[in-house]
Design a protein that fits this description.
The complex is a heterodimer of chains A (174) and B (68). Chain A has helices spanning 2-6, 29-46, 48-58, and strands at 69-73, 82-86, 93-98, 104-108, 119-121, 126-129, 134-137, 143-145, 155-160, 163-169. By secondary structure, chain A is α+β, with helices and mostly antiparallel strands. Chain A has two domains: 2-58, no CATH class; 69-169, Rieske [2Fe-2S] iron-sulphur domain (Rieske Iron-sulfur Protein). In chain A, strand 3 (93-98) and strand 4 (104-108) form a beta hairpin. Chain B is elongated. The chains are: A alpha+beta (174), B mainly alpha (68). Chain A: Residues 74-166 form the Rieske domain.
Chain lengths: 174, 68
């Protein structure tokens, strides 16, 4: 048995029959256990980045700070009316809607389909994208009809001293 | 001497727990349940020294390295 394994078929440069020890290629119990420990180590290391990002999120380091922006005065916006503004940048157009005496909502109004500007249609109680007839619910910003599948990013608002301020953009939640 | 497969069994069990924990960790991360994610990370990190300990204890059990 041993002789047959170690037999070199012809007397030339030997590249194929160069395994000297018997059983060298065999994965024994210890080798297998070693592999399993290595796998455990790999799992431990690979979970580190997830932990780092999760800890970062929990400590609120990823929360963006926005400077507050005055949108309009309370008197200027009647119930059911909307106001165009831009937040946070000057090219991020947004839409403020007064749903009731006390309830305001605001969204960035680039349609989540192909970024056409969405407008507020009071009679239908919806936000409508004119390009492909996408429709969004004004209460939640979620798409209700047409091609868009993702909600409009909501803008956080604050009412103070008779003025409405934009204070931040809600993070996208799937 | 009969070889001991207890270590192999325990380490395979640890591997199974690792796989399940990692899957759970990734899913909880995307659901934004970060506390659960951190718990899974801690469990994964804890399992590695345990695996090492089992290996160290079990390596000399059983017979010679190559039984003829």
């Amino acid at each position: 048995m041993t002789d047959r394994k170690n037999h070199i078929p012809f007397d030339e440069d030997n590249y194929t029959h160069n395994i000297e020890r018997n059983n060298e290629r065999m994965l024994d119990r210890r080798g297998f256990m070693k592999t399993l420990v290595g796998a455990a180590g790999l799992f431990a290391i690979s979970s580190l980045p997830w932990g780092t990002i999760a800890a970062k999120e929990l400590m609120g380091l990823s929360k963006k700070e926005y400077s507050h922006k005055k949108i309009a005065s309370l008197k200027a916006v009647a119930v059911g009316d909307s106001v165009d503004f831009s937040f946070p940048g000057e090219h991020d157009s947004a839409l403020l809607i007064r749903l009731s005496e006390t309830r305001f909502v605001a969204y960035q109004n680039a349609c989540t389909h192909l970024r056409c500007p969405v407008f507020w249609k009071k009679e239908e109680d919806k936000m409508i994208c004119p390009c492909h007839h996408g429709e969004f619910s004004a209460k939640t910003g979620k798409p209700v009809a047409g091609p868009p599948r993702r909600p409009l990013p909501q803008i956080q608002l604050k009412v103070e001293n008779g003025f409405i301020y934009a204070t931040g953009v809600k993070r996208y939640e799937a | 001497m009969k070889r001991s497969f207890l270590g192999v069994f325990l380490l395979a069990l640890i591997l199974a727990i690792n796989i399940v924990t990692t899957q759970f960790m990734v899913h909880q991360f995307f659901y934004e349940h970060y506390t659960n994610t951190l718990a899974c990370v801690a469990l994964n990190l804890f399992l590695f020294p345990v695996a090492l300990l089992i290996y160290k204890k079990e390596i000399h059990k059983g017979g010679k390295k190559y039984e003829q």
